[in-house]
Amino acid sequence: MVSLPGFCISVIAGILPLLWLSDIPEIPSILLILAAGLCLAVFRFRALRYAAITVICCCWGLFAAKESLMPFERWIQKPVTAQVVITRTDGAQNHELEIIQRGKQYLFPPTGVVLRGVYLPQPVCAGQKWLMTLRLQPVHGQLNEGGFDSQRYALAQHLPLRGRVVEAKILSEQCSLRGGWLNAVTNATQSLTWQGIILALGFGERTVMSAEVKNILRQTGTAHLMAISGLHISLAAGVGWLFARALQFFLPAHRIHYRMPLLASLFTAGVCTWLAGCNPPAARTFLGLIIWLSLRLSGRQWSNWEVWVCCIAGILLYDPLTVLSDSFWLSVLAVAAIIFWYQWVPLPRRVMNWRWFYRHLAGLVYLQAGITLLLLPLQVFIFHGLSLNALLANLLAVPFVSFIVTPLLFAGLVLTGIPWLGEYLWRLVDALLEALFIFLKYLPGGWQELDDRFQAIGFIGWLGIGIYRLSLWRTSPASIGALTVVLIVFSLRTPERKEWKITMLDVGHGLAVVIARHGKVLLYDTGNAWPGGDAAQRIIIPWLRWHNLTPEAVIISHEHLDHRGGLSSLQQAWPGITVRSPLRWANHLPCFRGQKWQWQGLNFTAYWPPAEQRAQGNNGSCVVMVSDGHFRLLLTGDMEAPAELSMLKRQWGALEADIVQVPHHGSRTSSSAPLLRAISGKAALASVSRYNAWRLPSAKVIERYKKQGYTWYDTAHSGQITIRVKSDKWQINGFREQIMPRWYHQWFGVTKDNR
């Protein structure tokens, strides 16, 4: 026999490897592992049975991962015609759908697809059934250290495919009950300022929120309140329990049963989960409540930690890919933090003698302080920072939203069809939200960025509580001193003086090369820009801050937007940054042939363009050699063959380099054979985007480099590419291959597919 907590720990241990496996074995290998686990289960030794459960659950997780990758093998070679159901939509051009039937074959589980920038021929709402012909692509994300992992997120959300509609025909115009309800509330609140928050709180739809509102929530650490999350599901369950208990006062004794409030709480939580469209956080909370209720009704007293372990195991058994979800681990740690906080640092008993208001205020402050302190490790790891005013903001916002706004909002959901009453309730909710956001907007403090050095320091809350409660500061002061020194050394670590790094960031279509030495940075190009954002805001600045690097200088190769798009954002973040370019713009230092300069002990030499020519476009790119006396890197921008040949006439022998940045993203108009022979390099690095409209890089260009003895790397395949240089030794690491090789980081689909 095995105990339930032991069984649950074995389940968790079996599924956790999905977080760090570099590859998923083939089905025969999984079946072989499963057979080994079943053989272990035959033995009577308890340890072997726990091992058997771990192995069997590991196989269950591997099967789930393998199943999630199946659509990449089945449906990306040619257009697919299938019946789909709309699951989420903004009513315009962004939709999520599930493929439920292809031909006569029904699919279980259905496969999720995301459509972006797609207008359908008829008005669309959740629940409609369509017959669509789709061109499907596997999810592909830009991968940089410390950046948002869109591939992992997509697989955790069961949305592995991106689609483009070739043909669409509606089969059923009927919206689902939730979809129709959502449309009714959307129309009723269309004129309200805080419609986005109302839809987020009522239905978990956050697409209508403006960027300004999202920034306020981020700055104040209150984003968790503004959607149907685990907190709201738990609150709904509590309301259901209270309603059932109140109803029991009016029932005869023989009709009162202790299970009724528990079942009522589960029912209201289920309704709230349904309203949220069964989004993953809400569904996980509802499943956790089912497990808690089952344990509660089992007739045994379970400890908080046992319930916690059982809930984690149950959720992972139901959906092993949940292990990839950051929001899941944030919820897990939040619950663990609450249990740990109340057990190890209980609220002083004298507080219970205070007046009602002060007692509850102290309890709220105590709870929020504990969560803030103990959630710091994941705050740093996932969000790369923390809100300095989160404690104060949540002290007001949590009870205000939970006990005032949310009940009125749910009343509005029920009564929205009654013209005068529904309209009054929505205006009241809007006014309350207006008051709340005025308070949040003018709070002092805000978001504080933290770099990767704080990952270890984030655990100081957990360690400090353990040291205090176990009295280690008295019994083992030397150990505490050693731990303190280790934390300080780790947080103050600096790279070796002789070492420097070159990183080609994965910015999609564009170019951004980071040269880092002694904690300072010189950038060659700054990526692309688009309406409402640029590569510096989304990738470069967060990457620099996460690595505790300060940019001092920027070289802009030429005027095209995909190379200078992030410059203004970098200048806003670091006003003192110097800019060098061949553009002859105000406040730009020149970058023309023959110029030499030094930065952080590295030598820079410009080989193109000549100052006497006013070359524009690709052939006006500033070509720079970077060298430390041993290692040489040639940066070429977007120069094309005519400029390459002109440059070679005077500089043939001087262009030898170890590594070259591939000109013009690997276009056939660049990378002429004479240039490659003159450089005589060992590796070529290209910054390209998958699925780009120009089908870059050219297969002929890649073959040309390989014939000349170069090793080819590009950001579409490798993600971020980093070169560590130390004296005459250097090493190239790609994100997918070496930095973080994970099965969910693979290049999914056809290898040659780069359209």
From TrEMBL:
Which cellular components does GO assign to this protein? plasma membrane
> What does the record say about its membrane topology?
Multi-pass membrane protein
One Pfam family linked to the record: Lactamase_B
- Quote the subcellular location field of this record: Cell membrane
Q: Where is the Metallo-beta-lactamase domain?
A: 509-690
The alphabetized UniProt keywords are: Cell membrane, Membrane, Transmembrane, Transmembrane helix
Q: What is this protein called?
A: ComEC family protein
Source organism per UniProt: Dryocola boscaweniae
